[in-house]
Amino acid sequence: DGGITQSPKYLFRKEGQNVTLSCEQNLNHDAMYWYRQDPGQGLRLIYYSQIVNDFQKGDIAEGYSVSREKKESFPLTVTSAQKNPTAFYLCASSPAEGHPRTGEQFFGPGTRLTVL
Amino acid sequence: QQQVKQSPQSLIVQKGGISIINCAYENTAFDYFPWYQQFPGKGPALLIAIRPDVSEKKEGRFTISFNKSAKQFSLHIMDSQPGDSATYFCAASIGETSGSRLTFGEGTQLTVNP
Fold it and tell me: Which of residues 40-59 of A touch B (CB under 8 A)?
């Protein structure tokens, strides 16, 4: 089955610890995205990557870091600098130019991070 | 700055009724307007999308109405069903390409009572 996998589904960390959220896709999509979802605020873009070894900051990148060493993988690290890290984190990907569904973002099931 | 405003925040409709969710945008460069549907504990999925060269797009019970001059667009769900109960997000982007940045509205939690 093709799709986007995020693990784990629930994650608990102590304040001050860095934590890395996994996102893997086997859809052969070029672009990948990380969003944060908070109640009443919609989805806010953290980082996105259009190709391997390249990524851009989104609207709320402070306190987060990413890497894109492989096309299939786009891990997100929530650092201790993120002031309010407890949230639902969503990873998405979209197919390349020329694909009939280019521009459509396909989302993973999300990881709910709770910082204690 | 929130560039896409969505209302209402929550909506309760009886089975068979019409659900209407509205969005307004500021950036006139936006030219792709999708709606995403999200069930609890899941990621959003594309429901329907429109480009500004048409004023309406219909897919089954779901219709997008688009008013370019007012910079507004809305989702209408006809004959609403309990299975439609979900959170709906409008979004907008410049271009409909790989790597396009979507700006999302705040979301509307729809409940359809049986």
Answer: 40-45, 48, 50, 58
